[in-house]
Hints:
A: alpha/beta, Rossmann fold, six-stranded mixed sheet, four-stranded parallel sheet, 23 helices, 14 strands, 44% helix, globular, B: alpha/beta, 3 domains, 46% helix, binds iron/sulfur cluster
Amino acid sequence: MIKAELKSFSNISAEKVKDSILNRYPAKVARKRGKQIIINRVENGDQVPEILANSRTIPGILTMRGCAYAGCKGVVLGPTRDILQITHGPIGCGFYSWLTRRNQTRPETLSDANYMTYALSTDLQEDEIIFGGEKKLKKAIEEAIALFNPKAIGIFSTCPVGLIGDDVHAVAREMEEKYPEVNIFGFSCEGYKGVSQSAGHHVANNKVFTDVVGQLEMRKEGKYIVNILGEYNIGGDAFEIERIMELCGFTLHSTFSGNSVYEEFASAHNADLNVVMCHRSINYMAEMMEKKYGIPWFKVNFVGAEATAKSLRKMAVYFGDAELIERVESVIAAEMENVLKVQGEIRPRCEGKKAMLFVGGSRAHHYQELFTEIGMETLSAGYEFAHRDDYEGRKVIPGIVVDADTRNIEELTVTPDEKRYNPRKKNDEMQKLESAGFTFNDYNGMMTEMKDNSLIIDDLNHYETEILIEKYKPDIFCAGIKEKYVVQKGGIPMKQLHSYDYSGPYAGFIGAVNFYREIDRMVNTKIFSLVKAPWQESPELTGSYVWNK
Amino acid sequence: MLLRHTTDNIIDRKALTVNPAKTCQPVGAMYAALGIRGCLPHSHGSQGCCAYHRSALTRHYKDPIMATSSSFTEGASVFGGQANLLESIQNIFAMYDPEIIAVHTTCLSEVIGDDMKQIINKAKTEGKIPAGKTVIHTNTPSFKGSHVTGFSNMTTGMVQYFSENTGDRENRVNIIPGFVEPSDMAEIKRIAAEMGVQIVMFPDTSGVVNSPMDGKFHMYPKGGATSAEIKSSGDSSFTIALGSLASTQAARALDSKCKVPFEVLNLPIGLRATDAFVDLLRKKGGVQVPEAIMTERGQLLDVMTDMHQYFYMKKAALMGDPDQLLSIVEFLTDLDMKISCVVTGTPAGTKFEKSIKEMAGGDTVVKSGATADTYYFHQLIKKDKPDIIFGNTYCKYIARDEDIPLVRICFPIYDRVGHQYFPLTGYKGGLRLMEKILNELLDRQDRDAAEESFELVM
Ligand code: SF4
Ligand code: SF4
């Protein structure tokens, strides 16, 4: 087998780049970063070097990372439209997470609840910080019920709440007794928990699992009923996935959590398959639902046309119905027509160009697919808040050392539900599928799919960004809003992969086409070549005006 | 409908804020600190706050906003943040080599009670602050005040750390510009230069958060007030503080530390507020108002007279920050517009409410502080429909639902550019504000006019 090596810049040594990064660091920092910057090498198909991930951010280093509250309220729960979300804390946290993540949602009728445009906060003041904020929280819940009359309320804790000792869970229970028709639950997602947003994902998964999933016995009509986990409908991605699901004949029971409603969460245990998009943020839910309800899960990826096709095929094979398999094939064939046409148009203009992706816990991996489809190569990539399994694959999970920061996040013990545990596939069916090469509970991680010698960097920081750009001169750099203008000031187009720069969708087939066009626009614009004014290009004086003076 | 759950049934809320009309202190402190040359703002707390504040400022300015964090974990929240700050200081100087680190606290470090002075002193004695470099700080507990308070606190911190009275009084005026845009700060400097008054202005974010694209990223762009300039403010003969909420505190601190007398003016937005500023600058600088400034004033007044008919009796609803609101309300009432309501989440006190009512009339609803939020503002709009709304980007949801034009003011403006480069302050800024209002009102008239009364000339 010929090993996949980076084509572009094989003359740039990844070792040298790594060294030049580490050189500048104080010794202690260098030691740590040395383990988070890895030169990729894939052996025997899926063996990759170990990377240090999900580890504390170095104080004072310009990091991309946010906090557990952002991961819980912003990422996981934010996209759902009819759980009324109250931030318990001073005003800032609730303000900044208000509509800034671009989760789109589409209520079916004008009278449906939609709280997406509302930011609710207890706006804690000094007195409450000193004497406790529980009283205010209770009052706020009462007022919220009076104003919005919601089915469910989530309470999100910010940093100070944990410290002043407010018990949001006790408040939730008490208020639920008072308002039995409202499901009220609290999240201990104080910003200091864990080391990044990731802790908040876990907190969110746990609470939604214990307090929401399984609350409602509703099953949507259809033969092939699936939940999609870890798709947050940024820029309308979930809408495109919904479109494809419908074309193929799958029934989308619930999406966690793009364009979702409470009732879909509450009855999600009635689906027959969980497919996972963003492994990092939601694998806990998939695992727990399998244990408790017997719903198998596997990883899919709807970013990239090929990846979308592959995922759809896998879902069809899971259900094993010939008719379904055929229908999926015909959808893929029909959709790929336009995709290939646009690819053919754009590929010659993008071929050979180089990308770097540093974002999130899955996108830095997923989006490489789209770049590959238009002939671009990923030189370097890394996650902002992922764990080792997202880099190296789930096989390393048993070996991951649980440190103090992770121990602070509750790990639920889940057992099969006495009444509702129902393995969707019998053992022999599973085995049959598996012996034909079908994988469940699978994620092979980003590194196994990246080329040798590419640079894998966890929790990339500002200084490293500058070095990467200087050494590799990529044609496009992908990260988040805080990095956007830093990179573009340096003359390199920068694509935001959290907010999509306020465009999209990029998922599915239509999304792929949107993305090709967007990247074409960015890497081929002449704007970045206008940096030098004419007099800077040729500063010699030839005008007679100067001579005559 | 985007805000489908908002009704005109106003119930008194005691505990719940819905769609805030303010945000927290550190973002203002971070912004102020960016107005010092070679300064890296540092957020002492968990990294989430810093990420949020940087994101908010980045979206507002579409420019790099650099700031570091102490990145607390649960351990730090239990044992205190000293170790994290000391490590941060060391790493920041090693990696980013700023002249100054400006530390602000967050809710978390405030609740823990970290003693910032003591930690900074410890950093000094442990040799973690290189020679010639400075670490300053301010306390910005978000459970008090708002982003405006944070700006005020950081500006006051600059005085406390830098300003010095060497005994040589200079014929120079300090200007504290308030929580305004870099374009406004540049305009205030331009006016002073035009008038020939020597000034020291701090903070000064012009050139920092609206820096030019030159093909290279500059960690410390050329703008900003230097520490030497801020130091010299202690020797100036007078301080003009613009905007009472954002600037009084620093001016007072400078007076008590360095004996520099001061006067507080409203932000110079609109004709009369700019007049007051120019007049005070003239007196304190000992100069005549030059022809060029008179021309600018005359042009502003000219358009006011020319277009008066389109403003007359038009009803406006305003939400924003108190200092801006006071001046804008004055300007709008000078144009004979009616003010239906004025809302700010920043606690602005009864004096603010009284001042607004004095200008706008007793019927105007004015509310500031707790639960004076965008939700309430929307309810007021539903009850008494205005012709035009003034507010930040979040007001666009109201504008669309109610089909009322919006003029974007204050923080944040996430969805338009312009505020970075074109001021609202000064006579020129007044012209720009008028142009913005006119464009909205006249576009609306064009859109809604019957075909036979569609006007060519307006
Ligand atoms: S924890 Fe406090 S400082 Fe941090 S974002 Fe929230 S309100 Fe602001
Ligand atoms: S990786 Fe990015 S897209 Fe996925 S959950 Fe995380 S933040 Fe969202």
